[in-house]
Design a protein that fits this description.
about 200 residues; mainly alpha; 9 helices; transmembrane; Membrane protein DedA with SNARE-associated domain
């Protein structure tokens, strides 16, 4: 597994625990960076005895919360001006921004939990939450829950599945969007069935 990451692994591991926090700050800012792969790698390193598992999970969560909070506050305060800049940057997908905006309008802050597991949505949710003036308490609550779930999942995958974690990670990412879509469809059908007829 170490050979897959090469120089990147050596550079990040040279930083120790701050390395994973820094990696997750970058991920939380929505920049193109393989945060989930880094967490798997750190989880594997914890299983090999290089790091303590609780420390890796806590540093991951802390880093991710810092990155997402900066993204939220920046978009909250600079709103339309930042939105126009983000639209022009190649690292942000305009279609993902529009789709995430529609989903947040529909589902509110709850989207922050499953949205963290969906590539494309994960990178822009904090910005969309800030642009839409989502209540800070709701943002921190749902982002905190999602960060705990997301970070713990990937670190634990590396810890328990070791060498096979990379293959498992790619498989899960491929199918997770479909799983979320099916879950949303089931939820919609359930809601429609329970809605009183007018």
């Amino acid at each position: 597994m170490w050979n897959l990451f090469g120089a990147l692994a050596r550079d990040i591991f040279a930083l120790g625990y701050p390395g994973i926090a820094l990696a997750l700050i970058i991920e939380g800012l929505g920049l193109p960076f393989p945060g989930d792969a880094v967490m798997v790698l750190y989880g594997y390193a914890a299983a090999e005895g290089h790091f303590a598992l609780p420390g890796v999970i806590l540093c991951s969560i802390a880093g991710y919360l810092m990155g997402t909070s900066v993204a939220y506050w920046t978009s909250y305060y600079y709103g339309p001006e930042l939105g126009r800049l983000v639209d022009r940057l190649p690292v942000f997908n305009k279609r993902s921004m529009m789709r995430t905006t529609r989903l947040i309008d529909k589902y509110g802050a709850f989207l922050l939990i499953p949205g963290r597991f969906v590539p494309g949505i994960r990178s822009v949710t904090s910005y969309v939450a800030g642009f839409s003036r989502m209540d800070l308490r709701l943002f921190l609550l749902y982002t905190g829950i999602s960060a705990c779930l997301w970070c713990s999942t990937w670190v634990a995958a590396g810890y328990w599945f070791g060498e096979n974690a990379t293959l498992m990670m790619h498989t899960l990412q491929s199918y997770f969007a479909y799983i979320v879509g099916i879950g949303a469809l089931v939820g919609l059908i359930w809601w429609l069935a329970r809605r009183p007829s007018t």
